[in-house]
Specification:
mainly beta
């Protein structure tokens, strides 16, 4: 066992790192305000962009929501188009509690977000069959299929 660990350490020291290493990116551009169509005088935060760049999800406590903070989406026709007015994801995702910080699976069929709907701040998930489809009812990510913790 000790011999295997020692061999692993020696190989890590002797062998060169993989070609290419970590990806290199350009410098960040200057941040730009998305304007009054997306932003409101209320708290807008936790933005997540869909894989195709056409939907911007975020949480906000703006009026016409279901509770404290809700998840909203602003859409655009192309990556060069202006953002449309935000729409609340509705009661299938949002509750009288707080929902925030949406993020997505790589295929865009699962949305993970934070909610305190059951009294504690937990990660919840909602799914859909395809991008234009509506989101399904949210379930706590830590529960099994029967809803048991």
């Amino acid at each position: 066992m000790k011999r295997g660990i020692l061999l692993s350490i020696v190989l890590m020291i002797v062998l060169p790192p993989p070609v290419g290493g970590a990806p290199k990116f350009s410098e960040w551009g200057t941040p730009q305000n998305l304007g009054c169509v997306v932003n409101s005088p209320f708290d807008d935060a936790g933005a997540a962009l869909s894989k195709n760049g056409l939907s911007l999800y975020f949480s906000s406590n703006r009026p016409d929501g279901f509770g404290g903070n809700d998840i909203w989406v602003s859409r655009r026709a192309s990556v060069d188009a202006a953002w449309g007015p935000p729409e609340n994801l509705g009661g299938i995702v949002n509750t009288p509690a707080n929902e925030a910080v949406p993020s997505f699976s790589r295929d865009g069929h699962w949305m993970f977000f934070n909610s305190n709907r059951d009294g504690s701040s937990d990660i919840w998930a909602s799914s859909r069959s395809s991008s234009p489809s509506p989101w399904a009812g949210a379930v706590a990510a830590w529960r099994n299929a029967d809803g048991v913790k």
